[in-house]
Hints:
alpha/beta; 7-stranded mixed β-sheet; 45% helix; 16 helices; 4-stranded antiparallel β-sheet
Amino acid sequence: xxxxxxxxxxRTEEPDRAYRxxxxxxxPRRLWxxxxxxxxxxxxxGLADWAATSPFADGQVDLYGDGxxxxxxRRVAAELGFPSAVFFPTGTMAQQVALRCWAGRxxxxxxxLHPLGHPELHEDGAFAAVSGLRTVHPTDEPRLxxxxxxxAFPEPFGALMLELPLRDAGFVLPAxxxxxxxxxxxxxxxxxxxxxxxxxxxxxxxxGRPLAEIAGLADSxxxxxxxxxxxxxxxxxxxxxxxxxEARLWRHRYGGMLxxxxxxxxxxxRGLETxxxxxxxxxxxxxxxxxxxxxxxxxxxxxxxxxxxxxxxxHQFQVWxxxxxxxxxxxxxxxxxxxxxxxxxxxxxxxxxxxxxxxxTEVTVSAPGLEWTAADVKEAxxxxxxxxxx
Length: 390
């Protein structure tokens, strides 16, 4: 009783986000680890322990981008099959610089991209406000544009930007032949092609192609180090040497030439060494989890649900249910408190134009989730539904 009372007092006094992170991050059974789960001390100790046994233990710390940061840039360029790459503190900065540099070369500041793309939804209009770029949308369907849509778009554009996968549409990808055709269609219009590859690391399983072949379709590629790879922060822009050298100049002008960045660079190198080789297993198991979720909701007689895509393209996918987002988040937290299983985490309202009265969450499968069987997933769903009165 005293222990239960203490937990209640902690929950009352602790900020909601910190409490949820403690509960979900400390769950004995969880599908994935979230960057917000750990403590500062544990995170630093984990990185220091890895660095101590890595080839970089006695390497030079960086000053304004040399040392271990240069090593990371060489590794990324090699992984993606480009001659050069440059480290950025954020992906927002990396992509603005990339598209700004291409606009200077093409003479056209118009960027064709999807309205669900990251720059349109999550960057407060930075393309226009900071870099003088203007965006247009070849399609508003919840998928990347087709070659026909690119060819038929009535306005000239200097760059076609493709987010692989398209996160806010459900982490969706086109078929390989469709991707090749849309790139060819852009080139027919004398446009360059840039990949928003924040999660490009996840794509080889779906396409059945190595990273370098996928990236090689584009003129330039941005990748993130904290998405999928578990880095602290940071991004890279890969492309031709002349573009990358100009990007270094603009990085300085945008305020991205930081004095030291070796903790972020080391965490990115750790992700490339430890997480990148495991991503195919995460993608494969995400399909097991998604199928078990569909079967569990159907067997429980859930009046309406959606697992999207039905077969995940990456190790992440969406789940939709006909309840308020606060109700579903509370049920997810209660499930973990009661059983120690973190199946779902935070839920969000349906985006504008989405079905009324429903909420959506993103499910990720990473190393902890590999231990879950289909039966484990179904058992967790059954317990979760009890907290909804189902």
